[in-house]
Specification:
Elements lengths: L6 H21 L9 H12 L31 H32 L5 H26 L4 H16 L3 H15 L5 H7 L3 H21 L8 H8 L26 H9 L18 H22 L4 H4 L4 H19 L12 H13 L4 H13 L5 H4 L1 H9 L2 H22 L1 H9 L7 H5 L8
Helix pairs in contact: 1-3, 3-4, 3-5, 3-13, 3-14, 4-14, 5-6, 5-13, 6-8, 7-8, 10-11, 11-13, 11-18, 13-14, 13-18, 14-15, 14-18, 15-18
InterPro entries: GT87 (IPR018584)
Protein name: DUF2029 domain-containing protein
GO molecular function: hexosyltransferase activity
Length: about 450
Amino acid sequence: MFAPLQNWQVRAIGVGIILCAIVASAVLPLFASGGMIPIYMKATDRYLAGEQFYLPNEPPAYTYPPAMILTTVPLAVFPEYGWRALNWLENFSLAAGLIALATVMVWPVIAADGPPLRDRRYLIAATVVTILCLKYIISPIKYQAHDLMVVVAVGGAALAMSRSNDKWGGLLGGMAAALKATPMLLLPVLVMQRRVVASMTFGTAVLVLTLLPDLFVASPDDATWAQSWYSRFVSKTSVGEAAEGDGAWTAWNALNQSIPGTMYRLMTPVETGGELKNVAIADLGGRTAKLIVLLIEVAVFGFIVLTCRRSPLLDAGPLRSFYWMGAAGVVLCGMLLLSPMSSTQHFCALCLPIAFFTVHYFFIRRTWVALAGMSAVMLGGPLASQDLVGETYSSWAQAAGSATIVTIACMVSTGVLLLSDRKRSEQIFARFESDSSSPNRDEAIISPPAAAA
């Protein structure tokens, strides 16, 4: 049995982590260059100068919604070292925030368990989650991207909804959608659950934040910044097809792990050479390929609708935050799969569904569904890294859609657990509302491995 940490030890660890983050943020800009932040800052400088920053003819182009530009405006007053250092510190803080957010949302499950197994199983589950998520949470930090901001906003929206704060839930969800567009997938979920206040707040937040950049700096064109963004980039994409646009995307791109991107590589033979890897399993083009992709995308959206319906687990009971994290995890997976372009750093979104089915396995019910999810993430994540399998195998696996498969596995595992627990909601309520000090509490919570959820 592990002795619990004292309060002073927790504070000391926290102070140590903060100091390490500050030192790392000050040192890393001296050695690390590149990343996404120079693209953001170049666009920001143009915005502040009243120049057009949506320029597809100048790759790499800035392709994000107008609201995102406001997140880098405060950095523009600093020289390059300053904005790089602040970006590192921001991402370290967001990573810590995501970890804290996930911990708060799973804690009702863990805290309901009594000694002596609590600390031991908590450490085991935390270790497994860390191993499975480390690659994904490091990626946006390494590439100096802003994706952690979006994931934290979506997770924060789910936490607010679990606490019956529909206004904050809608506001945070709308903010995420204004910054990245793909979180708009949250809106049909809120509408379907008949959460009127959250839906209206969500829509209002998207509208206000999208038009806010025009309030500060007007576009040089005879249009809003949102219209420029749509006409120059969004209009170039098509549902059911891999994203392709001058200066922004190419149809065959191994980094694009969305369903359209992966299916394009699997259905379009190419001559292997350089970054191109012929992973095609069929030569399907035009309408047939688009129809297949559309059917898969409809299935993904239907799965989200099916698993995120309003249920007793989301409306009441001691585990609301945990199951809201599961619902947010399904939506995040859907965002990655349905997006025109899902690149490496975007997959930090997998941290919430991974935490959900891992904690579910160790603290609620040991099922093959959760175990399959953990296994898929391990095989497609840590065990498929270049350091372990080499660059050749890793690049071929990436071209074949390894991250796409992992995302599908995460979404299915999380969704199936949500569906199965919905049927067992009364039993779950009884288990977690009973006296947690019961000497048989541990045995009551853990059921034998099941063949299915």
